[in-house]
Amino acid sequence: ESKEMSSPQPLEEETYDMSGARLALTLCVTKAREGSEADLDALERMFQQLGFESTMKRDPTAQQFQEELEKFQQAIDAREDFVSCAFVVLMAHGLEGRLKGKDEKMVELEDLFQALNNKNCRALRAKPKVYIVQACRGEQRDPGEPVTGGHLVMITENTPETIPTYTDTLHVFSTIEGYIAYRHDQEGSYFIQTLVDVFINKKGPILELLTEVTRRMAEAEMVQEGEAKKVNPEIQSTLRKQLYLQ
């Protein structure tokens, strides 16, 4: 049969092996966050489409955020099969570096991120871990500027006998440090809805997909109390390879 021409796939050592189990944990405070059910529905659809075993917990307290992540880590380490990748979605009200549980108490994001690092989660050592955070990171609002440029950070690869404790992680925040995030009462948050749409309908390495999410969000106008606002996600990556979800 004739071979179709396709864009060259990167070399095996340059991509993460996604042939094993894909696991997802979503922790979502729905209390006083209208529209979060729409986000949960969209994420459920995305995880199904991308072949993830997905667990969703609604309305965790601050302490339960931590406990659920530790349970997730223990369950991953206890598995007999090969685990390829983990997604953690955290949705709540928040301030920079912290999320607010259902009980109004705060949990440190850094503590949540620690649970799956290369030291604390053996099964995910050198495997991709993606954190998606839909939460405010402060009170600031961005009215937007006429024109701005941007650049992407290139990632170089290096595979020695040991790896740093904090590699292979992607943190995707719905907004930049110090700023609020937006959520629609019926349609859910623009960030989660855009991310789901791109991840389901586009193919390519995850950083490329996230660039598309950022572009779409940057082009959109959020209208709040009659005034146009701009918002964009922020991506922090220590991935060593290309991560393909499709």
Automatic annotation (TrEMBL):
Any coiled-coil regions, as ranges: none
Q: What GO molecular function annotations does the UniProt record carry, in alphabetical order?
A: cysteine-type endopeptidase activity
The lineage is: Eukaryota, Metazoa, Chordata, Craniata, Vertebrata
Source organism, top-level taxon: Eukaryota
Name it: Caspase-14
Record bears the keyword DNA damage: no
Provenance organism: Bos taurus (Bovine)
Hey, which family's this protein in? Belongs to the peptidase C14A family.
Q: Which Gene Ontology cellular-component terms appear in the entry?
A: cornified envelope; cytoplasm; cytosol; mitochondrion; nucleoplasm
Give one GO biological process term: cell differentiation
Q: Outline the extent of the Caspase family p10 domain.
A: 159-246
Q: Write out the entry's keywords from A to Z.
A: Cytoplasm, Differentiation, Hydrolase, Nucleus, Protease, Thiol protease, Zymogen
Q: Where in the cell is it found?
A: Cytoplasm; Nucleus
- Classification via InterPro entries: Caspase-like_dom_sf, Caspase-related_regulators, Caspase_cys_AS, Pept_C14_caspase, Pept_C14_p10, Pept_C14_p20, Pept_C14A
Q: Where is the Caspase family p20 domain?
A: 33-140
Q: How does it assemble?
A: Heterodimer of a large and a small subunit, both processed from the precursor; the mature active form is a p17/p10 dimer and the intermediate form a p20/p8 dimer.
The gene behind this protein is CASP14
Q: Name one Pfam family in it.
A: Peptidase_C14
